[in-house]
């Protein structure tokens, strides 16, 4: 049975969100949803997420899963909001607890924050299978960008998170806490061992001028043309290239708010006595 896939691109964060379903009127999963966030005003909005809600309702889909490939550092998750609108269970890779523990220390979130993954209904191990109507999703553990990254395979499609970008952009950075270029190399090569016609769906694209964003790339094209990890690039060469490039990169604009919210599945921190929720800025630490 073929899988139906609808992509939504958020140009503010260069992020693709996907609605994946078996058929109109059937069962759906949402992968990597975006909550709009204005860093200048520290204000959230749901314009992007509401487009996804309208599509799901328009196709008469029963939402089963809201899935994150990892705790993103470049956009805020709309998972919690979408669950309130559409139902479904929130899922993420089971190594999220490692990421939560790391950042709970960085942001000094104890004691109110629990680094046990309980913010999500499903902590997904390697090889887990999630039913989706007549289809099923398989969980692939693909660490490297973070220690907890997963991809989701359904039929001939794999949603790769931040492991890979389109071939002319390359691969994800590995300099966040828990990241590892050597692990990323092995995760990418694992994905590129699938049949040549397998469709890889990107979480991000940062297209050069003149090129439209690309959501879907074949394994064959990545193996032939990816500027960081095409066939013939050795592990040592990739690690040297990736680590050298990472040393030149500025931190993502939204890393501080995004991580704090995404380890909570996109839910805001509890409001304080004045009714306002607050995020933290760790000075001179990152």
Task: Walk me through the structure.
This protein is α/β, with parallel strands linked by helices and 286 residues long. It has one domain (4-253): 4-Layer Sandwich (Metallo-beta-lactamase, Chain A), CATH 3.60.15. It contains 7 helices and 15 strands. The protein has helices at residues 47-58, 79-86, 96-106, 181-192, 219-225, 235-246, 255-262, and strands spanning 4-10, 15-21, 27-31, 34-38, 43-45, 62-67, 76-77, 89-93, 122-124, 129-132, 135-141, 150-154, 157-159, 199-201, 216-218. It has a 6-stranded mixed beta sheet with strand order 1-2-3-6-8-9, with helices on one face. It has a 6-stranded mixed beta sheet with strand order 10-11-12-13-14-15. Strands 5-4-7 form a 3-stranded antiparallel beta sheet. The longest helix is centred in the N-terminal third of the chain and has 12 residues, at 47-58. The mean pLDDT is 97.
How is this fold's topology laid out?
Blueprint: E1 4-10, E2 15-21, E3 27-31, E4 34-38, E5 43-45, H1 47-58, E6 62-67, E7 76-77, H2 79-86, E8 89-93, H3 96-106, E9 122-124, E10 129-132, E11 135-141, E12 150-154, E13 157-159, H4 181-192, E14 199-201, E15 216-218, H5 219-225, H6 235-246, H7 255-262
Parallel strand pairs: 3-6, 6-8, 8-9, 13-14
Antiparallel strand pairs: 1-2, 2-3, 4-5, 4-7, 10-11, 11-12, 12-13, 14-15
Helix pairs in contact: 1-2, 4-6
């Amino acid at each position: 049975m073929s899988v139906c896939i609808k992509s939504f691109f958020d140009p503010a964060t260069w992020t693709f969100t996907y609605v994946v379903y078996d058929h109109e009127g059937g069962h759906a999963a949402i992968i990597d949803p975006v909550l709009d966030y204005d860093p200048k005003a520290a204000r959230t909005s749901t314009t992007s997420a509401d487009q996804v809600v309208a599509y799901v309702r328009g196709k008469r889909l029963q939402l089963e899963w809201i899935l994150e490939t990892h705790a993103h550092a470049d956009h805020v998750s709309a998972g919690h909001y979408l669950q309130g609108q559409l139902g479904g269970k929130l899922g993420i890779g089971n190594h999220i607890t490692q990421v939560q523990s790391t950042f709970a220390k960085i942001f000094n979130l104890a004691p109110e924050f629990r680094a046990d993954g309980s913010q999500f209904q499903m902590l997904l191990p390697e090889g887990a299978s999630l039913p989706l109507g007549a289809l099923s999703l398989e969980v692939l553990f693909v660490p490297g960008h973070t220690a907890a990254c997963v991809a989701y395979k359904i039929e001939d499609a794999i949603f790769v998170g931040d492991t890979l970008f389109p071939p002319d952009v390359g691969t994800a950075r590995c300099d966040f806490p828990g990241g590892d270029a050597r692990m990323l190399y092995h995760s990418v090569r694992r994905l590129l061992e699938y049949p040549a016609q397998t469709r890889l769906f990107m979480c991000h694209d940062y297209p050069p001028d003149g090129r439209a964003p690309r959501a879907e790339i074949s394994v064959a094209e990545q193996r032939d043309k990816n500027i960081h990890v095409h066939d013939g690039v050795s592990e040592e060469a990739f690690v040297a290239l990736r680590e050298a490039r990472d040393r030149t990169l500025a931190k993502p604009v939204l890393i501080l708010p995004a991580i704090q919210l995404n380890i909570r599945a996109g839910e805001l921190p509890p409001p304080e006595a004045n009714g306002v929720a607050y995020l933290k800025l760790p000075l001179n630490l990152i």
